[in-house]
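Quarterly update from the structural biology core.
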Amino acid sequence: MITAAPPAAARLRRWQRFTLAQRVTRSVFYLSVLVAIVWSLRSIEIIPEFLYDAPQQTVDLFARMWPIDWAWYPKVVHGALIETLHTATLGTILAVIMASLVAVMVARNITRSVVLNSIGRFILVATRSVHAMIWALFFVAVFGPGALAGTMAIAIHSIGFTGKFLAEAIEEAKPGPIEALVAAGAPPLAVLLKGYWPQVKPAFLSISVFRWDINVRESAVLGLVGGGGLGMALDTALSNLYWDQVGLVLFVIFVVVMAAEIVTALTRSRII
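Predicted structure, tokenized:
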């Protein structure tokens, strides 16, 4: 049996991973990244002399921190540690309360008003776009230095993160139970508590615990700008050049962050 030869166009067809437009776009992107890196290196004005002795300076710095001044822990660090944990915990509680209200405004399956949705999204973006250190500086100017300023900074900064994920969890709720409650004539509060809350509860608890873990880390350094806690103890030791006390505070921060990470992982595994 004689078969016809394939046409010339079929024989010359060649597979390519990217089209010409895609290759040009990728090349422009890589070139832009390279230009940005070179421009950044020139802008920050790296001094080679400082880089040469950086390892020696690092070793010398850690040598000054040893041995750690453990006697300073009961005098100052222990109280600062408790203040840091209280700041993170209270700030997280306030953030969850405020973020829950904003999340209800943002969730489109609950709030049908475009105006309220836009206001809620603006609050989420505005609170999380400003760093906690900047919020701490603002509240230090309002309330004065101390744990109150740090707590408010943690609370306001956490609204954006917590509210965004809570709103997404609410929008992913299954509509079946909600429609059944509405059809039965349940009031809006009952729909929230009996329809949405059982579905959102695991995500709500998981997000809250995860945010508390983040806030423990952030509250540990807010004292550098007057937010109280371990950061204030660290700032005092640095200002006085007491490097053995600096080593103690850094060690305590490391232990607290690791402990918070372990507690958060165990709690989330039980919740999820």
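The two ends are 66 Å apart (CA to CA).
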